[in-house]
Amino acid sequence: MKDLVSIITPCYNSAEFIEETIQSVLNQTYENWEWLITDDLSKDHTVDIIRKYNDPRIKLHVLEKNGGAGNARNNSLERASGRYIAFLDSDDFWYPEYLETMTDYMKENNAELVYCNYSRCNEQLQPVLKDFLADKVVTFSNLLKTCRLAPVSTMYDTKRVGKFLFPVKSKREDHVMWLNLLKVIPEGMPINKTLAKYRMRENSVSRKKKNIIKDQYLVYKDFMGFSTVKSLYYTANWAMNGFLKYSKIFN
């Protein structure tokens, strides 16, 4: 039997997009998965939509208090029992072969972490930027300068590395978690194939680069324990790479 994949999803006021996300999981060719959705006390009808789907693999938990995406992801991670951990935010989308391709690659290449290309789309899931390419091996060193790993396109093996939780006091919790993981394993392997769609919403915190430079600085200063000078150096690298990553819009 194929190994169980635990899909980790935080959601908050996602009623507009959650059905497309759910359908992308139900359409997976790899069927041995559990989906741990933690709702962060949504104020819309997100929870009602999720509860319409009568699939025992979908395991919804509604928090009693809003605590942010990192806290919601941790809640799902603590309940996860799968060998492989995959992340899917409540407004993103996987192609049907996502889970099968990722798990097959990990087994065939003895990989502990893999990531793939993903399409960068608007709210209607139409591409607005060139696909982000998984064309480099990821290490702790190069991840300091730019975060090549996105939840929608990354999977790791808990049998090999254990579980990694997200820091709840950082607005850059994804980057901190990946860095902590890459301290333990030597590298993450790329799959140069587009298997996911990342929805770039207008109100997304991750798109407001000028507002999160301080938060990124704290990734290095507080969470990595770097000196002020070293933290400023990596923050500058991150800012420059972030500009290049999101500035090349299709004409």
From TrEMBL:
Keyword field: Transferase
Residues passing through the membrane, by range: none
This protein's record includes keyword Lipid metabolism: no
Record domain Glycosyltransferase 2-like: where: 6-123
The keyword Transferase is assigned to this record: yes
Domain of life: Bacteria
InterPro entries with a match to the protein in the record: Glyco_trans_2-like (IPR001173), Nucleotide-diphossugar_trans (IPR029044)
UniProt GO molecular function: hexosyltransferase activity
PANTHER family: GLYCOSYLTRANSFERASE, UDP-GLCNAC:BETAGAL BETA-1,3-N-ACETYLGLUCOSAMINYLTRANSFERASE-LIKE PROTEIN 1
The protein's name in its UniProt record: Glycosyltransferase involved in cell wall bisynthesis
